[in-house]
Amino acid sequence: MTEVFHQHRKLLFAVAYRILGSAADAEDVVQDAWLKWSAADRSQVADPKAYLARIVSNLALERLRSARHQRETYVGPWLPEPILTTGDSADAVTGAESVSMAMLVVLETLSPLERAVFVLKDVFGFSHAEIAEAVDRSEAAVRQAAHRAREHVQARRPRFPADRAKQREVTERFLAAATGGDVNTLMDLLSPDVTLWTDGGGKVRQALRPVSGAETVAAWFAAIGTVTYQGVAPADMVAELTEINGGPGLVFRGPDRVIATVTFDFDADGRITTLHNVANPDKLGAVARGLGASGPVA
Known about the structure:
Elements: H1 2-7, H2 9-20, H3 23-39, H4 48-72, H5 101-107, H6 112-123, H7 128-135, H8 139-156, H9 164-180, H10 183-189, E1 190-199, E2 211-212, H11 214-222, E3 238-244, E4 247-253, E5 258-266, E6 272-278, H12 285-289, E7 291-292, E8 295-296
Parallel strand pairs: 1-6
Antiparallel strand pairs: 1-2, 3-4, 4-5, 5-6, 7-8
């Protein structure tokens, strides 16, 4: 019983995280799935993977529906909870794009059913019949939801350039310029119409609306090395480059805690088009614990 569940645990977390956009909620869902699996009559289970996916999908859908109102009344922009994807953790169960911050932001605009169907079908390759059983809908309804979700995502998903080495190089230059207060270099790295989204959740001071334009965004990050942030003086702040949600990102740490993460979207020329800055302390637990796209990062 335990061995079978743990064989699929990474997949279950990955499904739940993509449906919910929250690592903490995904962990809770996987724990609840374990309790249901433990109490089930497993002699009647022909396909444990499909059975467990059904449990997790239903639990995640219930949690997502209850969270919708909270997200609608959230203070400032709501961003997904970042996770580490160092090494091969992002590819343990699927590709890195499906866990990118940009993709999760797009998935947030789907209905709960459409989001679950898209994740199960387009990311993890479950059949329409398997998904219909998992979400308790007819196969025809699942096909319609999958079609709507796919069209919606394709119209809004960012076009990622293939050169990941270029993305990392730009991120390294951005970090050096930000910590050095080099506004000119920052502006060279930013698209003219770049947008910065910040998520403080009302817990820490952040912009309550998107910040747009290269000059404004460059000035925002050039101040990193000169101002005290969340009680942490510049001399006590450490910024490191790592893999977050399938791409290069920055983690800012104080002496005793993670205080923010920044992830990036790039255009075909390698310029930064969007930055997602998560500073809500309630959303930094996964990064602080080293939690990755499919579980703890070794």
